[in-house]
Every structure is written in C-alpha cells, then in structure tokens.
Amino acid sequence: RIRQVLARRIWDSRGRPTVEVEVVNEDGTRGLGLAPAGASRGTREAVELRDGGDRFKGLDVRRTVEGIAREIAPVLIGREVEDQAGIDAALIALDGTPNKARLGGNALIATSLAVLHAAAASAGLPLWRYLAPDRAVALPLPQIQIFGGGAHAGRRVDVQDFMVIANGAASFERALEMTAEVYRCAGELMAARGPLAGVADEGGWWPAFSRNEEALDTLVGAIEKAGLVPGSEVSIALDIAASEFGRGGRYRLALENRELDSDALCERLVRWTERYPIVSIEDPLAEDDEQGLAAFTRAVGHRVQVVGDDYLVTSADRVRHAASAGACNAVLIKPNQAGTVTETRAALQAARDAGYATIVSARSGETEDVAIVHLATGWNAGQLKVGSFARSERMAKWNEGIRIEQREGLPFAGPRALARMG
Ligand code: PGA
Ligand code: ZN
To answer: What percent of the chain has pLDDT over 70?
Structure first.
C-alpha cells in the first residue's frame, strides 16, 4: 500500500523546471517518476501545466507540484500500489478534463510512473521484469540521432532528426558500438567543413548545412568513414516533424525559402528513400494531413517504416483511426503524450493489434530517468528512440540497456522490429 506521495520541482536537460513524484510504500520501498518535456508537440497531446508569468519564462511548475500534494496525494494514499489501472483511472477522473489540462499531463505522468516504479520496487524486481513476468522479451533496436535539426536546433535545417539504425548489429551493445563510430565520424566531417557549433538539444551535431540533402549525404559519408556499409550494416531513420513547418497541406521549407504542397513534399521524401538507405521516416507530413500520410504510406510503406508521432500522440483511439485510414505502419510511444502508464500501454496494444510496429521514445527535454528503457524492454516494443549519442540524459538510457542486456542475457530485437522490413 502507498504510504506517502511527495512532489518536487527538479530540472530537465534544457535547464528548465519539471516535475518529480516519489511514491513511498508502507513496506518502505519507493518509486520515482520524472516528467520529460517536448519542444515539437502534437496538438492532441496531454497538456503540460506550467505557471505562466515571469519566473523561468513562465515555465515554472510550482502550481503543478502543489496540485500533486493537495489533490493527488490524498487520493493515492492507502491504495494498492500494484493497481496501476485503478490508480490511473482515478488520476484521469480527478483531473476531469479530456486533455489533462487541469492537474497537468506532467503531474499525471510523473505520478503514474512513480506508482509503477514503486510497485516494481515492492515486488523486488527491476522494472522491465515486473512488466514482463514471463521474460519473453527482447532488447529494443535503437534509433540514434546524429544531427539534430528543426525545433531542436533553431530551425537550422527543416528536418528534425537525422538518425541511424544499426540494422546489421546482432546485439544492443554492438548497435551502440557501431553508432558511436558513426557519431564520432560525423563530428569529424563537420569539423572538417568549417566551424563546428556544438550539439543540438538531444546531443546530435549542430546542423551547419545549406540543404537537407547535404545532411543526408554527410550522414552516408559518416557511416562509410566508420568502415560500415550503408544499408546492410547501418541505415538512416528520419523524423521530418512536418507539423512544425506545415499546415493545411502547405509546407514551408525554410532552408530553400520555398513552399511545397503535400504531393510535392511526399514526392521529395519518396525520392530520398530511393536515393538514400532510409528504413524509417517519422511524421513525413503534418498531423492535420491524414490524406498525405496515407498517400505516403501507400507509396513506401511496403519497404519503409512510416512512424506517426504528432499525428498519433500515443493514443489508442488515434492508432485505431489511423489503421482504418491506412496512415503509417508504426507508432511512436511517448508516455507523457498519453499522460498515464495505462493509456500508454493501451496505445502500444492498439498498435500491435493493427499490425503496426512500436518505438518507445524520450522527449527533447529529458532527465537522468531511464524508465523508458525498461518500458521498451518489458513491453517488448521492439524499438527505442532517446536522441543522440552524447549528453548524459541520453547516455544514461543507452547505458541502462547495456546493463539489462548483460545481466539478463536477453535477446536483441534487431531489424525484424522495423515495420515492413527485414
Ligand atoms: P519533442 O520531439 O520531444 O521535442 O516534442 C521529439 C520528436 O518529435 O520525436
Ligand atoms: Zn517526432
């Protein structure tokens, strides 16, 4: 049973306030839940509650922390910590809004994750194993950012994430080894091109490019420089995050100072998939462009993973709707988009039922929390996305995967985890 619920303000990887909840059980075990924060958010996501006003540019979370102490804690105390579904339902009812705006999606996800961790701690199990009692799970295939862009890099390039997938790796650890070499070689190529201006929000190299294609060419060059074969050993994954520069079927490419309609953007991306070893594209069209997303999926979905993030916002209903519209073949799973662990799990199940692949994902504003590695493993999601290969809010997660793999001898999901691949 839950004895105590503590809430506090902590700081995320961008140095901004965020929420942490600590659930203490009567047996003395405890669980910590930390809320991450996105920068390129879908409009249907659970809403973050922040103070507004002048402190920390309005981003403080004092009201959020107070709400947890005043309203959420009394509802949780005395409850069975294992009753995740019942507790999450109580949180949703207590908030009472469709988008969790009153108490805040950040308050709810931190609480919900703290309850989950506390339940695993009380059972004396690592979180992944608490979620997978029969252990029939695999370490996820990582998608790792090499160049940041879009909202994470002052919109220096239009595309948000230029990532690699080590599809030739036989283990999680080997996938990280291959990525480390590609990341280092990409940095050397950037340094040779001129002023190297550090890294973007998720640790990827700052995108000093004049065309999106230049980033793709440099990425292929980095894979080759690392002595790896593009396509068969290491492939490319992109997050276009098109909702950031497109609405109503019009897409404004800042780099080229040019507007494309949905068909033209679609054609451009199809051409990229033919020219470059691309195995996955996320949010190729904007969240309001379902026709475009369905057309793109029809065009490449048999050979490329098409991932819905802003469009699906980790919602089981949205996933079922997408499946009936034929849009996407994979779902990004971000717990704080849904707002509770139970709803996150339901979105993952809806994806599985629709035959869609799943990728558990961090946010651009992260913390040292490694819970998503356990969710991806314990839920057997198949894939994991946590940003780049630098900065410890990212490396903490990759390193946790190494520990789980070595301690438990779990298999590696590998390229079979990709939708329509392998
Ligand atoms: P965000 O973006 O965390 O900044 O919202 C991540 C993504 O689009 O996948
Ligand atoms: Zn995304």
So the answer is: 99
Whether this model's ipTM surpasses 0.95 comes out as: yes
For the record, the structure tokens of 422 come out as 């392998």
Quote the CA–CA distance of 412 and 376 in Å, as a whole number. Answer: 12
334 is known as an active-site residue = yes
241 lines ligand 1 (CB under 6 A): yes
Q: What would the mean pLDDT of 343-372 be, rounded to a whole number?
A: 98
pLDDT bin (cut points 50, 70, 90) of residue 196 is low
Decide if 376 contacts 383 (C-beta within 8 A).
yes
Ligand 1 pocket test target in 160, 201, 388 with most atoms within 8 Å of CB: 160
Q: What is the mean pLDDT of residues 147-176?
A: 95
